[in-house]
Amino acid sequence: TRRAFSAAVGALALAGTSLGAFAQDKITLRLSTPASETDQRSVSLANVFGPAVAGFAAYEPHYNASLVAQGSELESIASGDLEMSITSAQELATFFPEFSIFATGYVHQNAEHQVRVFNDPLMEPFKQKVEDELGVKLLAVMYLGRRHVNLRFPRSEKNVMTPADLAGVNLRMPGSDAWQFLGKALGANPTPMAFTEIYTALQTGSVDGQDNPLPTVVDAKFYEVTKQISLTSHLVDLNYIAFSKAVWDKLTPEQQATVQKAAEDAAESGRQAQLKKEEDLVAFLKDKGLDVYEPDLKAFREHVQAQYVGSSFAEAWPEGVLEKINALGN
Ligand code: KDO
User: Fold this and answer.
1) Is the ipTM of this complex over 0.95?
2) Which atom of ligand 1 is nearest to the CA of 35?
3) 99 Cβ inside 6 Å of ligand 1
């Protein structure tokens, strides 16, 4: 009818006006991540970062790698197709091999150590290179947690106490060289695969296991399709909040300071929540029927560290940086 038609046109015009007004004075900050909406890093960015920048920017997260495939986010930011991501040292190492030092097993000791390393002057040349050569600013370090070995086999079938016990085990690791090397250093057969494919791969048995921190095992429901977790703590894992330098340069100094603080506050809130979850979730997972146990940590640490010595990764580490990182630890 005529009335319905004109009402619809009116609504359209109204939507057009309001959308136009917002689009003109707010920038959109799209973030792409393989993580889910309920992952603690996603939650803290949505609850802390988004509201803090809302005066001049619309924070628009895309979860489950629905916007950009895992591992392609940095290229997307560099080419102007994306504004933000939470990137890993392993992804950065594909562009700048020296970043593998932060992706090496048993280097970071805990969440506070990660923060001290990130804020130390030793980090400046790393950050500067990413900014100059990729057009990406690393704003803050987010805590992902201690990665452990999570397998489909019951412990009665496979008791993972030392690296030798992982011989022949098909362990899904994320798909970059630094990740695959870590899987091998653990003693396993690493298989590259995107995060979003893990659940089905565990369910069908196309992989024997995967490695991730306990909060991820719970959030992604991997406990439904696995039987055990050997608490190897082989990597105290992190993500950097990555931000487009091109977008940064368009902001006023006040807006830049707001973005910087928002990123740090989100990282801190996410870190505290994640640490709490790591503590609480052992009981939850045991309750779900998983065997959660501690292996021979000395055997794992020594074996993993020995694999890096003399490797092409270690050759790319700038002189003295490992010593500085260690000195910032306990
Ligand atoms: C994963 O693919 O196992 C990993 O844990 C790697 C991390 O760097 C990070 O990207 C994470 O996945 C995703 O954010 C999903 O939690």
Assistant:
1) yes
2) 15
3) no
